Amino acid sequence: MFCRGVKYLFLSVCFLFPQEVQSKSKVCANVFCGAGRECVVTEKGEPSCLCIESCKPHKRSVCGSNSKTYRNHCELHRDACLTGLKIQVAHDGHCQEKKAEQAAASPVVCYVADRNELRHRVIQWLQTEVVPDGWFIKGSNFTDILLKYFKNYDNGDSTLDSSELLKFIQHNDSNVDMQSYADQESNKLLRSLCVDALIELSDENADWKLSFDEFLNCLKPGFNPPEKKCALEDETYEDGAETQVECNRCVCACGNWVCTAMTCTDKTAVVEETEEAGQEMTEEEWSLRVTELNKHQVSLSPKATVGQSPISPDRWVSLEFV
């Protein structure tokens, strides 16, 4: 290498002769430095790997695993070398701004306390209509009152389904009004869900209808409803417990898992650690998942048994949420 000073400019102009270029290529010929590094020749004439001094200016943007956009692959690997961090290519193109993660909305559910409160109000209302026997007229006891309403709302099949039971309860709307939520639509849905919970409470043959005997047992003042828990992966959960399935939230209510039914499109959403994590479930897979959540029910009743839940996923997956 030959260097000479340039007068007045106080600069040195150096010329790299061909033999020195050839010398570098020979010294670094068998040296592999890895991405973001280049081989240089030391003063002793030995090869050494250092971070690339400058990358070529071509633009082919990439997004790094550190969520930073680089002009090209070289710039990414050079930055990794200079900072000493492990940075990988996440994808081609600019990094996208992460959307703020939103907690999954909670489904509208009928908790045990809601179900019991509705039942208590109905019983109180019915008891006001009981008439004791008089001297000359026969009164109406609690069973008589229930039989009267059963016949009034039965469509002729000797059973009350959920819609008929709801109409019966709405007969005295002011006494059974439920205000657990801020909006009226959610409160109406809550009452419907609690009607379903009342049917499940006494539906011995699991046909989602109440015969008169089942109807009577459900509303007997002395009947103490058994407390049921939700089961999941060999563990039991109290009423009100929550779990997450992809972007949907599931709540334990009256011994059943009740889930929202939102489409999970945001890949950054918090997901449950399962084999399907990060993948959107099909409608069939979702139904199977909810069925799995409701597979085992645990009751604290003395005669309780663990078995298949009579509640279908379609009935309990709520599209309403707050």
From TrEMBL:
Domain Kazal-like residue range list: 50-97
Ranges of residues in domain EF-hand: 190-225
Main location: secreted
Signal peptide: 1-23
Localization in the cell: Secreted
Top-level lineage group: Eukaryota
Gene Ontology molecular-function annotations: calcium ion binding; heparin binding
GO biological process, one term: regulation of BMP signaling pathway
Keywords: Disulfide bond, Glycoprotein, Heparin-binding, Phosphoprotein, Repeat, Secreted, Signal
GO cellular component entries: extracellular space
Assembly, per entry: Homodimer. Interacts with SCN10A. Interacts with DIP2A; DIP2A may act as a cell surface receptor for FSTL1. Interacts with BMP4. Interacts with CD14; this interaction promotes TL4-mediated signaling cascade.
Function summary: Secreted glycoprotein that is involved in various physiological processes, such as angiogenesis, regulation of the immune response, cell proliferation and differentiation. Plays a role in the development of the central nervous system, skeletal system, lungs, and ureter. Promotes endothelial cell survival, migration and differentiation into network structures in an AKT-dependent manner. Also promotes survival of cardiac myocytes. Initiates various signaling cascades by activating different receptors on the cell surface such as DIP2A, TLR4 or BMP receptors.
Name this protein carries in UniProt: Follistatin-related protein 1
Organism phylogeny: Eukaryota, Metazoa, Chordata, Craniata, Vertebrata
